[in-house]
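The freezer alarm interrupted the setup, so I double-checked each line after restarting. Inputs confirmed:
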Amino acid sequence: MTVSVAILGASGYAGGELVRLVDAHPSLEATYLGAHSAAGGRLAEVHPQLARGERVLGGIDPPSVPDVDLVLMALPHGASTGPGIAFADRGVRVIDLGSDFRLDTPDRYLEAHGAAHPAPAALTRWMYGLPELFDVTNARLVAAPGCYPTAALLGLIPLVRAGLVDAGRIVVDAMSGLSGAGRSLREDLLFGSIAEGVRAYGVASHRHRPEMEMGIELATGVDATVVFTPHLVPMLRGMLVTTTIPLLRSVSREDLFEVLTEAYEGAPFVDVVDRSPQTRWVVGSNRALVAPFVDEPSGNAIVISAIDNLLKGAAGQAIQAANLMLGLPEAMGLPAAGLMP
Amino acid sequence: MTVSVAILGASGYAGGELVRLVDAHPSLEATYLGAHSAAGGRLAEVHPQLARGERVLGGIDPPSVPDVDLVLMALPHGASTGPGIAFADRGVRVIDLGSDFRLDTPDRYLEAHGAAHPAPAALTRWMYGLPELFDVTNARLVAAPGCYPTAALLGLIPLVRAGLVDAGRIVVDAMSGLSGAGRSLREDLLFGSIAEGVRAYGVASHRHRPEMEMGIELATGVDATVVFTPHLVPMLRGMLVTTTIPLLRSVSREDLFEVLTEAYEGAPFVDVVDRSPQTRWVVGSNRALVAPFVDEPSGNAIVISAIDNLLKGAAGQAIQAANLMLGLPEAMGLPAAGLMP
Amino acid sequence: MTVSVAILGASGYAGGELVRLVDAHPSLEATYLGAHSAAGGRLAEVHPQLARGERVLGGIDPPSVPDVDLVLMALPHGASTGPGIAFADRGVRVIDLGSDFRLDTPDRYLEAHGAAHPAPAALTRWMYGLPELFDVTNARLVAAPGCYPTAALLGLIPLVRAGLVDAGRIVVDAMSGLSGAGRSLREDLLFGSIAEGVRAYGVASHRHRPEMEMGIELATGVDATVVFTPHLVPMLRGMLVTTTIPLLRSVSREDLFEVLTEAYEGAPFVDVVDRSPQTRWVVGSNRALVAPFVDEPSGNAIVISAIDNLLKGAAGQAIQAANLMLGLPEAMGLPAAGLMP
Amino acid sequence: MTVSVAILGASGYAGGELVRLVDAHPSLEATYLGAHSAAGGRLAEVHPQLARGERVLGGIDPPSVPDVDLVLMALPHGASTGPGIAFADRGVRVIDLGSDFRLDTPDRYLEAHGAAHPAPAALTRWMYGLPELFDVTNARLVAAPGCYPTAALLGLIPLVRAGLVDAGRIVVDAMSGLSGAGRSLREDLLFGSIAEGVRAYGVASHRHRPEMEMGIELATGVDATVVFTPHLVPMLRGMLVTTTIPLLRSVSREDLFEVLTEAYEGAPFVDVVDRSPQTRWVVGSNRALVAPFVDEPSGNAIVISAIDNLLKGAAGQAIQAANLMLGLPEAMGLPAAGLMP
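Predicted 3D structure, all chains:
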């Protein structure tokens, strides 16, 4: 069985990784590559690293996309709403890597994006696609989570669910490589602006905060309040999320370790580790590493997670969800090992 | 007037910066350079970037150090205790960039270092040398603060002193360039281990946490509890500290801005800024940038500080203290502008 | 059919890539992992990025290595001679990624290494394993080429063979990422020594110069003289080789392009390209890009080649040779696409 | 005496360094800062690293520039011709860091830029401002050299002048940090395009080749032919130039060393060194390091030079020339030591 796949937004960083993963996947075949401004050009012009660069990019307008078994969309914010609804109506399986369908309610969307959702009724049809924590097996429309929420929620949800930590006072500080900021032509993304420096951005206003709160609430039923500060660090890939959260009772590091280990038993891509994880250990793979600590003087848990923001944080997680939606082995075609150095 | 200076630990990263700054200072002259394992060799062998590389390094043993007006020590932890006491007894002015004399009590030292101070009585003779917050004008023995505490305390102390934030629940997440880890030959400091990656270290156990708590308590009289997680990011220099701290009452970002601005009126090296500061804006200079934010949904202040860890976080701050101790203009010989790109 | 493989030197950078590639290869299985100082420990301690990190490393002594179909050795210079001879005597297929068996004569070895080969008679039994230019199909003992010679020879040999360029006056300047320098604990390989800087090394004395001359002479019968200057640039992976070589007659860039294209027709991993290639386009893949130029005012050809030094320059090329030696498809199990960004 | 200075092009990378150096210079004062698109804004918006960021940028039109003692121009190619002629007519001293007035003849300009000079008569009025090799003491109009020619010519001219090397067969391969490519908003200058990669550019066509040939010819009277291939490496600052050039007679490395040392006796910024120089040893300073080697098997000299492309390669060299033109000490206000790490 070969599943035909259309990849829309193939010219971006996440889109390029989707093409690479689908090209290497034993059961998927990319039969259509679509892009916005790069439409009409060849794949090699935007992704010289990929094989078969002579493939021509089509557009992203749904009518121009042929019938396929699965549509993967990696489009800028706002650009997936229209195509997402169109493909949903067509009855095809869709995984959206963007942020248009991630949030569960119009209010949450408004809080995250500062504007009303253009088609709020559509929100309820999409499943939040973090496969270790939400069952996507029967979903046909999946909104893949943001990279920061992926890393944060993998560490937080099992602890909140176990009643060990206070979800009302979560502090998430996170560091991302530059590929997370996308491929836009912005002065603040030049090598001359980024190398040898670090900065916070979206302070007190990043759209991933409401998504994290939603994830906790959907998975545990516990109200959550998150303070989230993301930082850009001078590297291409990788994401580290450091979460500080008050303990609700006296527990040891071993207790946290056990709860997390149990939560991810059988999960092919999440490893609970007993040393501070490094992003380099996961870059190039679809793995997530999670490590719990206890800060005894202050009574806080500290949980550190590491992922490749373009794989487990984007394209890899989407293929993982696709595998499950299609009844394939969860880990099929996904790299289990990273590249180092 | 020329002040003669001995620099001990001249072969390390902070030591090299001390030599560079003293060489360029109109009123200081490095008359003695001492090092441990590099003793006997020439300066150019350990610091090819410095001028007059033909200078020969002596040892760090106090008897071998000639009479000078000022001793600057940048030695590994534990190595300044002996020389520090010897020079203090000699009556000379000393600034120690290490951690041997920074903490005010034997208990705090034990908490930070996991071992008793070898000469606890000496601790009381040293002044904590963060010049914007502690008056070092009349001090003869100064312990220059750690880099992380410098950046964190500049943002925290004015807010705690003003009664605006809850010092009992401070979360400090920080990112440092590699020069902060020193010049040791360690596998985890190889380019192949560091580039393109980020990691936390010293989680729930870093010695700078007690120092931060001490700084707040000494400056404000308020008990403090800090959760501190430092991270290494792949850059040579620069430090960013992101502090999350509950507000005690409803204040606006402008209120925080005003309190901080007032606290640093006339301070030549601290700028309170209204956008998220980047380390690149300060690297190469002795400046510190501090920016306050309010996270309204959670009722927290977020304060972000940026410094060059080797200048305002080490050698620059030491020269700043020296200027004040010697009755010279506070900013003399210190770079007001950074290098960018 | 599954081919059992022993990987000796599994703890190094090239060794880690061998493990990753063999683990992902449909027809190879790593049944033994050997290391020198890391012997006795687990794979995860030296390669936290790899899957099944619980595997225990054995030693590299031939008697301790079980019977396998293929031995891959990635050992420091000098360390493969003994094991290489032992495995050769055992009759097993061996690919040595080191420099012990690469050179064809004792004289060339002496020139390259400044010391006589310890077992010169063994040299003749090994095949130089650059599969696009030397047929390894029937070889049982293969010495995989150095990374610099791989990149340089792919560009040079077809042009020399066609009589277009003067092999007696070749200038090769090359730039390598740090992984090429290996994982040794050296002060000059610290992040603090490497980041934000570039340097030449081995000037007028690098051992890869004689290997380049040998490659040209074996493949074309033309005597060659190469001036070779390698440089370290601050990146983990990737190698760019810029070759300047006098034209013997007036040819156009299109002529060079045609000769090279014809030479690599059907080669799955070499692409002749018409724009200046970037290392980023090949990192993560086994591809080599080669681009010819003509500098008309001086009458020189300029040929630029890009490879991933750990893949086409080391582990990938070894697996490519193994595929051919074993009668498998040349590209089996090798990544055709790179990772970018 | 304070010399009033106008800096035009203050918003670029070289312009920012001019502001920094003039601000720190004991005898110069920046009384006017001009920029093109940033005109009307404050200095801090384009150079947050500089002191007194509240200064407002004016335009670059000569009529809007007040009377000053010295004009420094760091404008894009083509943009200095008009202002340069206008200021020359005004009789003011001018140093142009751009490429409009560097070449000595209209033919050379045409060769370098592929277009005729818009005002060829003006070319003869400008002096080529490489102070160690051309006397600028009495010049009023100086064209500061390009960064690549600066580094290459410092190594080449003394050897050609001494008749030791064949100027007709020079191969220059060079590596530059990204700041050399300027601050333009180009996709190929994004961090995501540059980090972890290296590339050649301007192959067989870079405009600095004719400038190098001119420098040799003007200084030595010997016709020169240069093959020049520049490369971008992933670092902010620093430039390394590796030159390979046939020896005309049998000389030792010591001979080359002696010729170069003698040539730069008394030069405050050029050091002839006996080991392979690293860019990190000069970044942050106005120094140039030059190291000669002999490749005996091929009969070539290899000369390696390292500079900070923004200092000795641009702004620092301009201030050095200004000092000489103004009768000030050559090294005044220029950093003798670099920053490391």
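Quick read of the result. Residues 147-161 of chain D form the longest helix (15 residues).
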